């Protein structure tokens, strides 16, 4: 059964999103693989845990239950089971150490806490495992967000990855989509359109920010969203570090134009999906 008062935060990291959801009045089930960040969150949110408003799962999400070697960044606390994600980060100068952590399929967490109103996923390379887990249940979250593949051109996933992640959501019944830039500041409505209390999210690559009816932009059908995703991917190929065309003349031209006109980098995008048809 869908719990209208519950949000699942998969990839709690520094807790920015968890704090935002709690401030809006939701109960939260947070998933974080990094043991140091789990310990920190248990101290920071001790009152919310004691009140039964927050449950923290100190596990990694994987295909099978077991023990997994988690790569943890030395400075940022970023962690991942994905070797491709680790190699990408190492190219940017990040250094990792490894720690063994418990790993579980996401289905186990859904069976324990129920289907949330909103499912946020950002776990560096394994987001689709959480989305795929919904196949095993009859109900769906009203809203889902996942870290989009458009931000990582150096992984060489190809444009098919954009189609694949949208197709996964489509097969689960989602019909409205939008890409949301995590680095943009969005002033939310007061009184709120989501939750029971007003709260302002953190604008950061470490937070997904607004969700549901409070996300900026227009909900679009899948066909337009695919085109939008391809366009954003091209921007990243031109303007992001290690983009396929970043070191070519078109890349230099694009970055110079963007810095003068828009005065901001390409950004980091989450893909949001909503049940229901386009009005």
Describe what this molecule looks like in 3D.
The protein has 279 residues and is an alpha/beta fold. The chain has helices at residues 16-23, 35-44, 46-50, 83-91, 106-113, 127-133, 160-171, 222-239, 249-261; strands at 2-10, 27-31, 54-57, 60-61, 66-73, 79-80, 96-104, 115-121, 143-147, 174-181, 269-275. It has a 7-stranded mixed sheet with strand order 3-2-1-8-9-11-10, with helices on both faces. Helix 6 (127-133) links the parallel strand 8 and strand 9.
Q: Which term fits the overall shape?
A: globular
Distance between the termini: 26 Å
- The H-and-E topology, N to C, reads as EHEHHEEEEHEHEHEHEHHE
Structural class by SSE content: alpha/beta
Binned, the helix content reads: 25-40%
Summarize the structure.
The chain has 9 helices and 11 strands. With 279 residues, it is of the alpha/beta class.
Question: In terms of topology, how is this protein built?
Answer:
Elements: E1 2-10, H1 16-23, E2 27-31, H2 35-44, H3 46-50, E3 54-57, E4 60-61, E5 66-73, E6 79-80, H4 83-91, E7 96-104, H5 106-113, E8 115-121, H6 127-133, E9 143-147, H7 160-171, E10 174-181, H8 222-239, H9 249-261, E11 269-275
Parallel strand pairs: 1-2, 1-8, 2-3, 4-7, 8-9
Antiparallel strand pairs: 5-6, 5-7, 9-11, 10-11
Helix pairs in contact: 7-8, 8-9
Question: What key phrases describe this protein's structure?
Answer:
single chain; 279 residues; alpha/beta; four-stranded mixed sheet; 9 helices; 11 strands; 32% helix; 24% strand; globular
């Amino acid at each position: 059964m869908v719990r209208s008062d519950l949000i699942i935060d998969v990839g709690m990291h520094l807790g920015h999103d968890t704090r935002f959801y709690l401030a809006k009045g939701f109960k939260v089930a947070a998933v974080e693989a990094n043991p140091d960040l789990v310990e920190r969150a248990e101290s920071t949110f001790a009152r919310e845990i004691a009140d039964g408003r927050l449950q923290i799962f100190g596990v990694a999400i994987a295909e099978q239950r077991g023990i997994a070697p988690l790569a943890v960044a030395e400075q940022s606390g970023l962690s991942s089971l994905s070797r491709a994600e680790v190699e990408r980060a190492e190219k940017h100068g990040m250094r990792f150490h490894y720690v063994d952590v418990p790993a579980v399929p996401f289905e186990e967490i859904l069976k324990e806490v129920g289907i949330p109103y909103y499912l946020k996923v950002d776990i560096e390379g394994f987001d689709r495992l959480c989305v795929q887990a919904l196949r095993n249940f009859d109900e769906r979250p009203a809203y889902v967000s996942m870290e989009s593949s458009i931000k990582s051109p150096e992984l060489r996933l190809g444009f098919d990855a954009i189609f694949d992640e949208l197709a996964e959501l489509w097969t689960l019944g989602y019909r409205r989509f939008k890409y949301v830039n995590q680095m943009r500041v969005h002033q939310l409505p007061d009184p709120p359109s989501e939750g029971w209390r007003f709260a302002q999210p953190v604008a950061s690559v470490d937070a997904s920010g607004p969700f549901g009816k409070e996300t900026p932009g227009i909900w679009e059908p899948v066909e337009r969203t695919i085109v939008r995703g391809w366009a954003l991917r091209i921007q990243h190929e031109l303007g992001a570090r290690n983009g396929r065309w970043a070191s070519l003349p078109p890349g230099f031209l694009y970055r110079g134009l963007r810095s003068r006109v828009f005065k901001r980098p390409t950004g980091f995008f989450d893909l949001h999906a909503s049940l229901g048809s386009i009005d």
